[in-house]
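Known limitations

Structure tokens in this collection are predictions and should be treated as such. Users comparing against experimental data should check residue numbering before alignment. To illustrate the layout, the record for Heme A synthase is reproduced below. The input appears on top and the generated tokens appear beneath it.
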Amino acid sequence: MRRLLKWFAVATTIGMLFVLIGGALVTKTGSGMGCGRSWPLCHGQLIPSNITAELLIELSHRVVSGVVGLMVLILSIWAWKAIGHIRETKFLAIISFVFLVLQGLIGAAAVVWGQSDVVLALHFGISLISFAAVFLLTLFIFEVDKKFDVASVVLDRKMKFHIYGIISYCYIVVYTGALVRHKQASLACPSWPFCAQTRIFPTQLHEWVQMGHRLAAGLLFVWILIATIDAMKRYKRQPIIYWGWLIALILVSCQVATGALVVFTELNLYVALAHAFFISCLFGVLSYFVLLATRSKKEKEARHESNVIPSAVLK
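Generated tokens:
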């Protein structure tokens, strides 16, 4: 039974990635109104008569979101019963389902009544929180068999500052990226990294939205690079931290690269979807760091226990 729960948790996590990428696909292809002002039906019909590419994309996203939403509900209840003794399980179970329902309601409201670009930009970020909660639930399920053992992790204040600060800032960057999509400002600046070859600074709203996101993403890359260098210097004996930050650096590098390629390829769909995929994976890794930070031993406790972790790590 426990093995079945593991497989179901992995499948649900992958399903949440499909929901995130599907939402990005709807936005990138302008298919948000593919089913008209009707929800959950398409043009008020259970089986639409006039099939278009936009309708297929929007309807597929609704179906996938509905199926995955049911999977998240089942996983939340199942995890609550199976590993409810783990302190974070019930909280994550509630967050994963509630935020998935919330993003669905925002999407439905946008279809039926319309929403501003500022509100619609929250859609991806809310789905991202649900994905992170499902991802952590999956890790907890594996942790029961010590597949993910965090009992020996020791983090100092500086590393915890990096973790809490970067994930909070990353969420802001995600919002600015979603705002770029909903404002249709992805190609507002035809050059990279500057807005245009003949000038550095933006001159109108869409260019400011685009360049604001680029600046925010650039600062995120720099901050993760600093945290990674810190981890490589002081956490060599803690592979979860050492390799975790290296993975985060690779993901944010891919995020920056695909962001540039979006401009160079003039909004190639596959590149744009990869851009959404990498930020989703990065947020998942950062969420795991938050888990480590909340469960790590205190420095005094670690010093008192043994000398397994050298004092240089704890400075």
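For this record: Residues 73 and 97 are 6 Å apart (CA to CA). Residues 150-315 form one domain. Please report discrepancies through the issue tracker.
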